[in-house]
UniProtKB/TrEMBL annotation:
CDD domains, per database record: RPI_A
Listed name of the protein: Ribose-5-phosphate isomerase A
Stored Pfam families: Rib_5-P_isom_A
Organism ancestry: Bacteria, Pseudomonadati, Pseudomonadota, Alphaproteobacteria, Acetobacterales
Catalysed reaction, written as an equation: aldehydo-D-ribose 5-phosphate = D-ribulose 5-phosphate
EC assignment: 5.3.1.6
Pathway(s) the chain acts in: Carbohydrate degradation; pentose phosphate pathway; D-ribose 5-phosphate from D-ribulose 5-phosphate (non-oxidative stage): step 1/1
Functional note: Catalyzes the reversible conversion of ribose-5-phosphate to ribulose 5-phosphate.
Keywords on record: Isomerase
Length: 234
């Protein structure tokens, strides 16, 4: 039908991405997230760059770096920018109220968490389908682990109550992160205490980082059928 958007959720994600991109000011150092929603944000920043906005970016993955470079965006690293003004990224789950997150279904959780931790403000952009009452309701917790001894690490994660799956790509090869590590997708079901679980996972030797982002979110821009909503942690 004329005028009807054929991809309403895609349009909603684009609007959230544009809203976040509009938060970037001249001279800022910005963390550039990873995933389909973050890619829309990077495209929006590319359009603002073409209009004359100037900032520097630290990407959270090789694919986000490639996208930003192709748009002419200046990329830097932590050797010159140990702290960022703003980081913008997507999420796989956002817990209502706390705004705690699960991230990493795209395999970028380690660099994303480092960038989020280095930013004065961490803004998350999602469609309303990502909102949950409890983390773990729909998504596993991705955990980045060293390849050496991953089987033992997996066993210890299982002892925390998770069903553990080594991430394999569609072509049947091992999924290897930008850092050369493996991902274990850990299904816990609804998580009552994300902070405690994040600590317990982090205590396991062989674990590099988990996709639980607890008490890190400054604001979430949610794109829904009623429009955009901006949530701030309770
Ligand atoms: O590792 C990937 C990231 O955590 C993504 O931000 C997350 O998976 C959300 O991606 P999308 O916006 O494509 O749903």
């Amino acid at each position: 039908m004329s005028g009807q958007n054929s991809d309403p959720m895609g349009e909603l994600k684009r609007r959230a991405a544009e809203e976040a991109a509009a938060m970037v000011q001249d001279g800022m150092a910005v963390g550039l997230g990873t995933g389909s929603t973050a890619a829309l944000m990077i495209d929006a920043l590319g359009r603002r760059w073409a209009d004359g906005l100037r900032f520097v970016g630290i990407p959270t993955s090789e694919r986000s770096a490639e996208q930003a470079r192709a748009l002419g965006i200046t990329l830097v690293d932590f050797s010159t920018h140990a702290q960022l003004d703003l980081a913008i990224d997507g999420a796989d789950e956002v817990e209502r109220g706390s705004l705690d997150l699960i991230k990493g279904l795209g395999g970028a959780l380690l660099r994303e968490k480092i960038v989020a931790a280095a930013a004065r403000r961490f803004v998350v952009i999602v469609d309303e389908g990502k909102l949950v009452d409890h983390l773990g309701s729909r998504s596993p917790v991705p955990v980045e682990v060293t390849p050496f001894g991953w089987e033992s690490t997996a066993r210890q994660l299982g002892e925390l109550g998770a069903r553990v799956a080594l991430r394999i790509k569609r072509d049947g090869d091992l999924f290897v992160t930008d850092g050369g590590n493996l991902i274990l997708d850990c299904t816990f079901g609804p998580i009552e205490d994300p902070r405690a679980l994040e600590a317990a996972i982090g205590d396991i030797v062989g674990v590099i980082e988990s996709g639980l982002f607890v008490h890190r979110t400054s604001e979430v821009i949610v794109a829904g059928r009623q429009g955009l909503t901006r949530l701030v942690a309770a």
